[in-house]
Amino acid sequence: MKKLIFISPMLFMSLICIASGRDLFKTDEIVETNKAMELTKSAIPVETGRKYEVLSLARTNSKYTIEANERIRIMDLRDIASRVRIEFYDEQEKKLPKNTDINIPVISQGFLDYVRVFYPPPAAKSLKVFLIPGKEADIASKKIVVRTDLDGKEAECINVHPSFEYGDLNFYGYGGEFYTRPDGKVVWNSGFTGSTPSIPVKGGVSYDFSCRGKAGEPKSFIYIGCYNTEGDKPFKSMKYGVSEKGETVKFIMPAGTVSVKLTGYYVIVEEFKVTESKEDK
């Protein structure tokens, strides 16, 4: 007897807003596996400083799914969930360290779009995409796309996923939590503290940081950490507020800055954009 599983469409209505662009690899081949499997067949060349998107229409029979585990959204899924993994390789085709991998948890028993937009790490010259099943589980995919030259908001903004339109099951590499409001809008709740992925910038250049959202408490703010090539800790920081009408601030990046991360303190964010200031272009 087949078991029918109902998933509320409210959870996934925003998944229809997937960016388009120039496809580097695409297949509609249906595959299912209980061991690691490469989907891309061969390495796909990438360039540092260019945005890429990987999309996989995937499902799993793992016990770590929204259908089987009501705690799934608050669990640490890094080593237990089935996932789509993006691995990077250098110019000698040697795999980069494990901490550069991008793992996208697949946590549904029905096929859903799992998406990640990203910048390759500095030493990356190519990437491969794999299916990784969870413990005692199978994972299946019936579509995989790797693309660049993205359109829409991804083309407009330097940061990735500026409005969280890929749904609350795609965690985007953020800290904190994503959830879908009753009106269908996906928002980022930073909690006490939650950070964005790294955003590439240039020292001495002026950028506009625009954020629309809601303060969780009176002292809520967004903290901008500036990073150079020498370490994992910010060498300079700046902060600004958040409001439902939207706040935009302009910052000139300190000399030596190569990337920034935004950290929210008790904020609920609907959208944020990082763009190069127009008058400086």
Describe this structure in words.
The structure is a single chain. The chain is mostly beta strands and 281 residues long. The protein folds into 2 domains: 148 residues, Sandwich (Jelly Rolls), CATH 2.60.120; 92 residues, Jelly Rolls (Sandwich), CATH 2.60.120. The longest helix has 5 residues. The protein starts with 21 loop residues before the first strand and ends in a 5-residue tail after the last strand. The chain has 1 helix and 20 strands. The N terminus is likely disordered. The chain is globular, with a radius of gyration of 19 Å.
Number of domains: 2
The N- and C-terminal alpha carbons lie at a distance of 63 Å
Low-confidence stretches: 1-16
Count of extended strands: 20
Structural class computed from helices and strand pairing: mainly beta
CATH architectural grouping of the largest domain = Sandwich
Strand content: 35-45%
Q: Biggest sheet, in brief? A: 5 strands, antiparallel
Number of helices: 1
Radius of gyration: 19 Å
Summed over residues and divided by their number, the pLDDT gives a mean of 87
Q: Shape from CA axes?
A: globular
**CATH fold-level assignment of the largest domain:** Jelly Rolls
CATH secondary-structure class of the largest domain: Mainly Beta
Encode the helix/strand succession as letters.
Answer: EEEEEEEEEEHEEEEEEEEEE
Helical content stands at under 10%
Q: Key features?
A:
disordered N terminus; mainly beta; 2 domains; 1 helix; Jelly Rolls; 281 residues; five-stranded antiparallel sheet; single chain
